Prior knowledge:
Layout: E1 2-6, E2 10-18, E3 23-28, H1 42-46, E4 50-55, E5 64-65, H2 76-89, E6 96-99, H3 102-113, E7 121-124, H4 141-144, H5 148-152, H6 156-177, H7 185-192, H8 200-210, H9 222-228, E8 238-243, E9 265-270, H10 277-280, H11 282-298
Parallel strand pairs: 3-4, 3-6, 6-7, 7-8, 8-9
Antiparallel strand pairs: 1-2, 2-4, 2-5
Helix pairs in contact: 2-3
Amino acid sequence: MLKHIATELLDIVYAEQGDPNGWPVVLHHGFPYDIHAYDEVAPRLTSEGARVITPYLRGYGPTRFLSPTTLRSGQQAALGADLLALLDALQIGQAIPGGYDWGGRAACIVSALYPSRVRGLVSVNGYNIQNIANALLPADPEKEYRMWYQYYLHGERGRAGVIQNRRAFCRLLWSLWSPKWHVDDDVYARSAVAFDNPDFVDVVVHSYRHRFGLVDGDPRFENVELKLSAMPSITVPTITLEGDADGVSPRGGREANSKRFTGRHENRVVANAGHNLPQEAPEAFADAVLDINAWAVRA
């Protein structure tokens, strides 16, 4: 059953499973996915005493902005602020955040800037904080072609394309990013409903333009973005995961940022998993969360 809770900016809709007094885990999905990514992860965690919370991100599913005048920002600072606001609203002092893609970015940001709120971190594809200052520096062609969808969204043709073909566009990304995951239409349709959110296109387009410095961010997050520009270290215990069949973030593509983890850190490679790792390899993701909790208990 879905629940609602209000923060300063959002009515966040989330699923909650497990013992209300259990050890808290907040699992964030990425783009373009939704909370069903954790359908097989959550039961494993709740069976070990966890309280598992899986929110819809801003612009997805039934989560809504409270004011029509709030900038529909998808910038990284907004995602981190939403996670922190959710913890505050639920009166959770300390949790294990986990995620991938946009959700992994939110988890990394809170872990870096507010480590007292984090028992430990699980992040797919490593250190997900964006180095916006260097965003216009070209990568090698092998990496550049994988980012075609981001460049597509930089122009109004891309915005119009997502408005007109949002489900087909997102379905294509699922296929390209998880080439060994054979998704049937029913599984995709269950998640694709989340993309019908009226703010989905605006939030997505803003995200992929802001990270390249093409549009301004929400002024309320300017100080957070300034802190993130320093690429802060993550000191909390962390397990990072990477699928060896990830079509957008190939294995080893972020090794240069491994030095950003200055606490206990372990990287795990998951065979045959693509970008939507929690849904493709739920046991591997759940094992990482359980191991982080065990590290925290022993600390």
